[in-house]
Structure formats: C-alpha cells, structure tokens
Amino acid sequence: MSLYEIRNMAVTISGQRLVEDVSLTVEAGQCTALIGASGSGKSLTCLTPFGLTRGVAMGSMVLDGIDLGSADAARTREARCRITGFIFQQPLTALTPHLTVGAQLQEATMQAGAARPSVRELVRQLERVGLYRADERLDQFPHRLSGGERQRVMIAAAIAHDPKLLVADEPTSALDASLRAEIMGLLDQLRAEEGLGLLLVSHDLASVEGHADQLVVMDKGRVVERGPASKLLSDAREDYTRRLIAATPRLQEVAPKLSRPGEILLETRGLGVTFDRPGWRRGKIQALADASLIIRQRESLAIVGGSGSGKSTIGRGIAGIGPVTEGKILWRGTMLPERRQRSLDMRRLIQPVFQDPVASLDPQWRVEDIVVEPLRNLRPGLTTAEYQEMARVALTDVDLAEEFLARWPTSLSGGQAQRVAIARAIIASPQLLVLDEATSALDPLVGAGILELLLRLQSENGLSLLFITHDIAAARRLCHRIAVMEDGRIVETGAMQEVIDHPAHPATQKLISAS
Amino acid sequence: MLALITRRLMTAIPTLLVIILASFFLMRLAPGGPFDGERPLDPETRAALQKAYGLDQPLWEQAWLYLSRLVQGDFGPSLVYRDFTVSELIAQGLPISLTLGGLAIVLALMIGVTAGLFAAVRAGKTADQTIMMAATVATALPTFVTGPALALFFGLWLGLLPVSGTGEGLSWLVMPVVALALPVSGAIAKLTRAGLATVLKQDHIRTARARGLSETKILYKHGLRPALVPVASYLGPAAAGLLTGAVVVETVFGLPGLGRYFVQGALNRDYPLVLGVVTLYAALIILFNLFADLVYGWLDPRMREG
Q1: Are residue A243 and residue A301 in the same domain, yes or no?
Q2: Chain B hits for A84, Cβ within 8 Å
C-alpha cells in the first residue's frame, strides 16, 4: 500500500472547479514531484486535502489508512499534525516573526502530542538539518537568519514530530542556485534516513531533476502526464511535457547561435559602491568593489552570482538608477556622468528591465501609457498619434497584439507583463538593456519565450544586453560572455562556454555544479 | 535597547527647547496680559506688578531667565493664582489627570482589543458588522456630548453616580473615565480588527495551522502580536491626547485636573502656568512615543533593527 494515494480528486473554490481528476501516489522513502506553471493547480492539489486552502477537495485521498476525503475536520487536523509535515515557499514569511526559532521548533515537536522537548533535543533537531551553532540559533528570531538558514529551520520544524509524509510547496524557489542544491540534498538525505515520503511541488523542472522518483506534470488543473522521473524526462509522450523539458535551460544543451559582437560600447573601470549601514549603526557596507567590465555592441554579458553578491548593484549603477561611489563608466570611450547630469539622449541609450514584471508596471496606468511614458520624456513634442503608432510598433516587437494597448497591468499574465516591460524599455531605441533577473520570476515556458524574444531583439535591433541572473544555464542560452560575482567583486570573467568548461574560481565551480 | 532609550532622550532635549520657546513667543504675540482684568489697574500698580514678575525686561531676557529657572526644576510663580507657584498647581492637578488618563487607556485597550479580536474572528458576519458600526459611532462622538449624556443618564436620572467633583470613594471616576475611553476604544477596535485581518492572511498563520493548532491558539500565539503594531503606533499620541483631551471631561465633571488650569491659564494669560503645562505635556508625549517604540520592538522583533 502506498503511503499517500490520491485518486480522481477534484478541488473547487466557491463552486468553481479548479482541479479535476488528479491521481498520484507517494511511497515511503520516495519523492513524487508535482510540476506545473503557476495557476496549474499544483499547490491546491497538495494542500487542499489537508484543509490548508479555501478550497474543498473531493475524491479519494488516503494517507496512511485515513481517507482525507471522508474525514471530518478533527480527523483531517489530526492527519495534518501527526502524520504530515509542511514546508512552504517563503521561509521568512512562513515563520512567525515574533517567536524565536526555539519556540517554533518546540511547538512543532509537540504538535503530535509529544512532551516538551529539552534544549538539547532542539539543538539536535537543528543539527540534523545542517544548522551550526544551533544553541545560539534557538534564541534568535527568524529575521536574523539568512534565507537558507530559515529554510533549514522550516524543514527542522516540519520533521520535528517525525511525520511520515512531507509536503513541500516550492521549497527552493525563493533561494539561489547553490542553496537550492543544498536544500534538495538535505531533503534527499532525510528521505533515505527516515523513510519519509516527499510530495514536492515545483514550477521548475531543473530543480527536481535527479531528486524525484515520480513526476506528475499538471496544466490548467489537470494531470497532463505522470510516470517515473527518468522515463518521463527521456521519453515524454505528451507535447506539453516535451515543451516543458525543452524550455528548461541546461548546461549540457547545444550551444545557441548568437550574433557577432561589434566594437566596445560600454566599459566600467574600478566601479565601487558603498552604502552607509542602515538604521542607527555606524559604518559602511561595500556592496561593490573594483568592478571592471566591458560590453560590446550586439553582445550579451551575463552577470551571475548568488543573492547579495552585488550583481544588481552593478546593474543599477550602469543604468543610472543606483548610486556609484567610485570608478567610472565609459560609453564609447567617453566618460558617462552620474544620472542627474546625463543628457536626455544618454538616458535613452540604457534602459532597465526588472525582475517582477507585474510590480514594475503602475497598476493605475493602461499599457499604452506605460509603454509611451519614456518617449514623452525622452522625445517630447510628438503628436499623440505618433506616440500611439510607436507604442503599437513596440508591442509588435515583443509579440503582443495591438489590443493590449488598452489593457490594464492587472489583467496581464507574468509573461505578458514582462513583454510590456520590455516594450517600454525598447520604445526609445536604446542600445543597451540592463535586465535584472528578468526571467527568474517566470515559469520555465514563459521564461524561455522571453529569452527567445531577447535573442531576436538583439539580432534585429543590434541591442547589447546586460543579463543579471543567478541561473547560469539560462544565461548560457543568451550570453556571449559571463562575469561571476561573489561578495561584491567580479571573481571570474570569460567567454561563456570557456568558463563553463573550465571554471577557475570556487564560486564559479559551485554555481556550475548547482545548476 | 538602552542605547535607543538614551539616544531618544538626548534628542528630546532640543525638541522640548523648541516647543518651550515657540510657545513662549507665540503667547506673547497674543494681545492682552495677565493684569488686564475686568477692572483696569492703575498704571503705577500695574508697573509695579510688571516689575515684580520681570515682565518689564526684554523678551529674550525673560525667555532666558525662564529657561535657566526651568533647568533647576522651577516653573516660576503663577501670575493669576498669586499665592501658588506653578509647581504647586501642577502637583495638585497632575495626579487627577494621570489617574483619569491612565485608567481611560487601560479601559480603552481592554474594550478595543477584545472587540477587535471578536470582530476579526467573525469577519463578515453580523457580529463583525455590528461591532465595527459601534466602533465608528464611539469614535465619532465627542466627549462633550458623551460626558453630559452620561451625567444626565447615570447621574441625574438614575442617581447611581456623582455628577460633579471628586466626592467619596472611587465612583466619581467611572463616568469621566468611560467618557474619555469611548472614542479611543472605538479606534483601537478598528485598528485591531484591520491588523488581524492582514496578519491572519499571512504565510506563518498557515504554518501554524499546518501544525494542527486550534484556531484560538493560532490567534493568540501567532496572530495577535503582529496585529497590534498599528494599535501601538496609535497609542503613543493617543495616550498623550487622553491627558490633554481630559480638559473637556474635567470641565464637564468639574474635576480639578491639569486640563482646567491649562485652559484658565491660557484665558488669563498666566504665562508661567501655561508654559509649565505645555512643557509637561510635551515631555509626556515624547515619553509615550518612546514607550510605543519599545512596545513595537516587543510586538515585532524585526523592528528592533532600526
């Protein structure tokens, strides 16, 4: 008998059927991964049977002999707190801010009726998930821990009562690549040691590869395909699965065809950024030190690094939307002044695109006004009809139909919103786009579409791209060269394939082995 | 935390100085003086009085003199209650005002937080709507309406509580405290309800629910503290407001609190008395705001980072 078996389950929220006919099994000691784009119903599928969403689940859901489908609220609660542990996506918000790590861990240990654990027991639990100096951690509040540490605490709390099933909803999506690999490794280890069954939810095929035994691919609330992971990855039958696999960037895939770079467009020499420490504390933070790089015409340069490595700081400095405290930026050999002293024409040449496409568009503005806004500032004095025509052309360039001009940002999907953001960036004919994690928040299929769009814009318009990302495999699809950053410094630069084949710096090696 | 307190107290000094000087000069800009009674004094007496209280000196010099006395804890003499110093008047009125204000805050917190909690748990239901409507009414009614209404009903018609003065026992406190607490409790109920509505949607509540905790425990252990952050930020200024707002209630119920001296001092141009009360209020407001900041840090440890 399987540890957890769902058969023909449907989920409805206020009468609307959002998930239909889902079947899956989780075996003890094994990992079943539920893969799908955002809105495919994968989180609803795994959380609703436990009463953790607003939805109602119908069908057969048998967990360790308890049918969650027919159980009453008390029995569902018992199945949830005795047999199951949960890990959620955002490790900061998923932990209670005003309770110490120790208090939360204690609560988690006692949830299945265990006695109050001793401090030594709590320390042991933290050490089990690879947290060091565990006795200090017990007295800390969650916000004092780093993202990876928080997720480890989350995992420690999820397994503190020795559950049989672990439900992990996007456990690594908020973490950078090397942390992602560490957390997945930890989950593998726990499965092997404790015989835990793992139901893993992810939008990212790459992050579950090599960890999942069973794959279930979902789209629009239905299961598209399911089977053993190795078989599904090598021999997918359904078109959707194949497209998903193809969209997921891999380091081993065939090298892309890139345009030929021209002469040097932009150069930074010894760029540095120091901030005052926030709050009342004295001192400075060196966010970026001695960063020198060049970008040629029609060239894409990837800046890759973990969170806090300074990769966004350098991008913001170059785009003129963040401070630069040392060094200089040269544009075609002439010195680029700081933002306020840049002429309108200079500002036009470098345009930014941000990570969260929906948040970077003003919800009160129509798409047309959003796209046209740079023009009104950078090329004033044109007629409304001219502006409108240029907005239409810009939308066509990003493969959006003319009717999108009248839409509001809230009615756009993530991919459409990012296309609008790119249209806004290219409408004033810039020569360099600074893309800060422009595909990181998107589903793999949508992100792959944006990468293709960028490639096409580069070959058609001769754009240079500064592609800031933590995902080296995604960068490889687009970029000629790569600069790897760690602790505010560029530690390695070179041609993309060269660096991937022969990484010299430990930081690069770590990034590559984590992809 | 000690560093925060010291720093805040250090910045309080210039703040107080500015407030004192501004009130000092503003008061002097207003026409009239302490000796302009209904019957005009003859010029000689008037000049003598002016000289006795140092009012014939240049303004800057008077300000300097006032400040240098203040540093030694001397608020100066009252110009109208000529047998008393300002310190004596404050010592008489302050205990009454502090008792009124303090009890009103406690009562408002008790009523407000309980009502807010109750409404949040029943969000969208009739109980929630009734409570929120009552809170709106309570906030909207000024104390000069509720005070006399209470006095009329419980004092005159039912004869349960004394209408005026401090009388025997503690029953005289009931109506003034209720009148003071009502509008504040309405605001607190609304803030608690809104804070909880936000917090109960957050991820950590789902984590607590996943652990199988009862809804009551989720509410108290995981939800309430972060939800009270807006209440704390309101309470600093509100606490100070309760002391100053007590002016109306003290007048309605005929209580010899600080507020009454404040109003009379202002009407009579009793410069030292008004300045003394203003200084005291300002210091209290600064203290309460500091206290509110410390409470924030307890409610949500993330705020301790500054």
Answers
A1: no
A2: 210
Q: For residue A279, is pLDDT > 60?
A: no
Task: Say if A109 falls within a structural domain.
Answer: no
For residue A251, name the pLDDT band (cuts at 50, 70, 90): confident
B198, B237, B244, B293, B303 from B234: Cα distances, Å: 17, 6, 16, 11, 16
Q: Is the separation of the CB atoms in A143 and A436 below 8 Å?
A: no
Residue A348 lies in a domain: yes
d(CA A430, CA A450) in angstroms, rounded, equals: 18
Q: Which of B7, B203, B206, B207 is the best residue to mutate to test the A interface, defined by the most A CB atoms within 10 Å of its own CB?
A: B207
In chain B, which among 177-216 make CB contacts under 8 A with chain A? Answer: 202-204, 206-213
Judged by a CB distance cut-off of 8 A, whether residue B305 touches chain A is yes
Question: What's the pLDDT at B37?
Answer: 66
Contacts of A81 in chain B (CB under 8 A): 210-213
Q: Do A96 and B204 touch (CB under 8 A)?
A: yes
Which residue numbers of A have CB closer than 8 Å to B's CBs? 50-52, 77-78, 80-82, 84, 86, 88, 90, 93-99, 107-108, 111, 141, 143, 154, 157, 278-281
Q: Which domains does chain B have, with CATH numbers?
A: 94-259 (1.10.3720.10)
Contact B210 A82 (CB under 8 A): no
Q: How far is B243 from chain A (nearest CA, A)?
A: 31
Both tokens of A355, joined, read 């990570």
Residue A373 lies in a domain: yes
Q: Are A312 and A206 in a shared domain?
A: no
Distance (Å, whole) CA A171 – CA A43: 12
A320 and A221 both lie in a single domain: no
Tens digit of each residue's pLDDT, chain B (306 residues): 777 788 888 888 888 899 989 988 888 887 777 777 666 777 888 788 778 777 778 888 888 888 888 888 888 888 777 788 888 888 888 888 888 888 999 999 999 999 999 998 888 889 899 999 999 999 998 888 888 888 888 877 887 777 777 766 777 888 889 999 999 999 999 999 999 999 988 889 999 988 888 888 899 899 999 899 899 888 888 887 787 667 888 888 888 888 878 888 888 888 888 888 888 888 888 888 888 888 888 888 877 765
Verify whether the Cβ–Cβ distance A279 to B4 is below 8 Å. no
CATH (domain of A63): 3.40.50.300
Query: Comparing C-alpha atoms, which of A384, A375, A383, A311 is closest to residue A347?
Result: A375
What's the number of domains chain A is made of? 2
> Are A97 and B300 inside 8 Å of each other by CB?
yes
Same domain, yes or no, for A310 and A198?
no
Tokens 């909690």, located at residue:
B117
Residues A316 and A408 in one domain: yes
Is there a domain that residue A215 lies in? yes
Both A312 and A461 in a single domain?
yes
Gap from B4 CA to chain A (nearest CA, Å): 9
Interchain pair A94, B207: CB under 8 A: yes
Asked if A382 and A241 sit in the same domain, the reply is no
In a shared domain, residues A372 and A489: yes
Does the distance separating the beta carbons of A278 and B211 come in below 8 Å? no
B202 CB neighbours in chain A (<8 A) are 93
What is the span of the domain harbouring residue A346?
297-324+336-514
C-alpha dist (Å) from residue A143 to A124, A242, A274, B245: 22, 40, 23, 39
The SS3 call for residue A473 is helix
Query: What is the pLDDT of chain A when averaged over all its residues?
Result: 88
C-alpha angle A125-A129-A131 in degrees, rounded to nearest 5 = 90
Tell me the pLDDT tens digit for each residue of A353-369. 988 888 888 889 999 99
Residue B158: phi and psi, rounded to 5, are -90, -20
Return residues 206-265 of B near A (CB < 8 Å): 206-213, 221-222, 225-226
pLDDT tens sequence across B105-149: 999 999 999 999 999 888 888 989 999 999 999 999 888 888 888
